[in-house]
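[Meeting: bench + compute handoff]

Bench side (C.D.) handed over the final construct sequence. Compute side (W.E.) agreed to return the predicted structure before the next meeting so the bench team could plan truncations. Sequence as handed over:
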Amino acid sequence: MDRLWNRNYIKVMTANFALFFAFYLLTPLLPLYLYETFGATKDVIGLVLSGYTILALLFRPFSGFIVDSFPRKTVLLISFSAFAIFFAGYLAASSLLLFTIVRTLHGGPFGAVTVANSTVAIDVLPSSRRNEGIGYYGLSNNLAMAISPTFAIFVYSETHNFQLLFWLAFAIATFGLLVDSTVTLHKPHPSSFIPHFSLFRSTFGRFVPWSKTFHFSLSKLSLDRFFLKSGWLIGVNMVFFGFCFGVLSNYLAIYGKQVLHMTGGTGAWFMLCSIGLILSRLQGGKALREGKLTQNAAEGMVISLIGYTLFILMPTIGGSKFFTFHFSLFTSIGYYGSALLIGLGNGHLWPAFQNMMISVARHNERGTANSTILVSWDLGMGLGILVGGVLAELIRYSFAFWTVAIINLAGVTLYFVRTRQFYFTHLLSE
């Protein structure tokens, strides 16, 4: 059997861990930062934070095209460098407007680097271990999610210094960039999607030798170079699940503090969620290796639905007359139990959907397939952050989280009614 854990695969996973560690270092605390530093209201917090995801969403399709067209390592290092540098921009953002601009622009390189890094991970995997390898690749995200929020909340509780967190995020992202710079890729196959103009080649060919290898016709530059049309319904289905996690992950800390009156529980929630993610990746590795993608996806989304519902119901049950004396107990069960279930569910769901998307794409569309599934997740996350903030401001947080349960149920229904059969219809052989 081909070797899964090769040196380059381990390096790419390490860099991905650093990337998401830097990302999650700030994610759970930014609503508090905006509220405490700038006095932002709930709806303004939603608008500010959604800008990051929206710009990442806009960059993803172009990132997939560029990754499939230019040398992938070059694209990776450029986008990773920009991602790291933007963390320093938070230090200079002295007003809410400046912070909003920096935070929004930061979404661009994040969208690009996540596409580039995951595509490079696929390239360094043997084809016989790809489904399994993509599943394990997500462990680096999960480990970062397990450790980073807890670490960030500990640092903040000890120092109350957001500037220190910004510096730490910058340093960790820079470490990831350095690791990725040591990855060795085989010479990429010349792409058929890079512009070729005879005048350009005749004038600059002797100065830019690689330009002679590219051939292009403008008629080939179509929508499917930016969005994988053969996987559109898989992407639409992923939007529903991104919405749910967008609301929960971004408003968890402030919801726990203001509504559930739980201080210090956010880090433990993310830790338990990540434990669930890790356990599901380890348990689901065999199923992915055997190609049981639709089974993994189905199990994951049902478990997640139970987790989201538990999160919403338990505070309500705990506050009823029958359970009045056990309010804190039932709130804790719903709060922490939901974390484990949502982690288990997403850990099955994510690699299954990503592999399904890659399985309906041709070899030279891997970057586009990766960007499409990430675009779908980002679109859902962005909508979740924006809508969640507006609903919390206009009505209350509990209503925003009830919306999460409804949207998640709609996503599960769509999968069983349409998406599963759509995947089998468009599946390509290796």
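W.E. noted at the follow-up: The mean pLDDT is 79. C.D. will use this when planning the next construct.
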